[in-house]
Specification:
By secondary structure, the protein is an all-alpha fold. Helix content is 52%, strand content 0%. It contains two helices and no strands. 0% of the residues are buried.
Length: 66
Amino acid sequence: MGRSRYVVAVVVLVLAAAVLIVFKLGPGSTPRGQPPLVRLADITRFDADFNAACDQVRALVLLSPM
């Protein structure tokens, strides 16, 4: 029974690594009509984009891995 648990654990880890790689390296896509995804490396760009939409409802969601 110990060997089968080891095999299952290895398979789960390999699948988890594959999913992580696909999500990390895969291209991001957005629905038609929505601006493309961007990485927020520069806070001034975010600030300008956020303030440019002052006549619309805006939402800010912060996600953290921990």
